[in-house]
Amino acid sequence: xxxxxxxxxxxxxxxxxxxxxxxxxxxxxxxxxxxxxxxxxxxxxxxxxxxxxxxxxxxxxxxxxxxxxxxxxxxxxxxxxxxxxxxxxxxxxxxxxxxxxxxxxxxxxxxxxxxxxxxxxxxxxxxxxxxxxxxxx
Length: 137
What we know:
The strands form two sheets. A five-stranded antiparallel sheet has the order 1-7-6-2-3. Strands 4-5-8 form a three-stranded antiparallel sheet, with no helix packed on it. With about 140 residues, it is mainly β. It has one domain (about 5-135). The two termini are about 25 Å apart. Helix content is about 5%, strand content about 45%.
């Protein structure tokens, strides 16, 4: 699986569901999670990690968004996120808009694939800054 921007993330702004000022979170998932562009809500995310130093639902981040008139592409920059002193095994991360209630209401933004299991034991678990791009046309 490769990193991806969920299809719904392209439609949700038009429906008033996503805004750059929203609260976004990054949550870690295991290799058992099957990311799909067709997933649109957090309740479709399976196999969230559990472990020392990790809180269910992940942590708040502030992504940035830009559009290039040269390449006609949308870029989403997901900032670095760290869980200090943690014991975690993760294969990827899902980024979503957090509404603070039911997972079925939280819009998915993108999935970051680590390409392998990343394991920590009583040390920081860090997701490096990621840039995802969606080409128009």
